[in-house]
Design brief:
1 helix, 19% helix, 53% strand
């Protein structure tokens, strides 16, 4: 798990250093890009024929990227076409 966290920290550092400074979005912008990092700990139980069960907690990590393109825009509603990539790590 340590190598995965080191890899993740390297990716985050690379993206942070390579990205230009944050700017306010203009009303004419039609594209959005987002990066998602999420993690969870899933509990589980295993039962054996001997009668004693064991409990375990399995951590997992997911990295994702999302691209949205605005196809319709009005005063009250906007419609986007979206693509999402997800890379789960267990």
């Amino acid at each position: 798990m340590t190598r995965k966290l080191q890899f993740l920290a390297g990716i985050i550092t690379l993206i942070t250093l390579a990205s230009p400074g944050a700017r306010a979005q203009d009303e004419t912008k039609k594209n959005e890009v987002g990066l998602v990092i999420g993690g969870t700990v899933t509990p589980g139980r295993r039962f054996s024929p001997a009668g004693a069960g064991t409990a375990s907690f399995d951590p997992s990590l997911a990295l994702g990227a999302e691209y949205d393109h605005r196809v319709l825009d009005s005063d009250r509603i906007a419609v986007y076409v979206s693509t999402f990539w997800l890379r789960p790590w267990t």
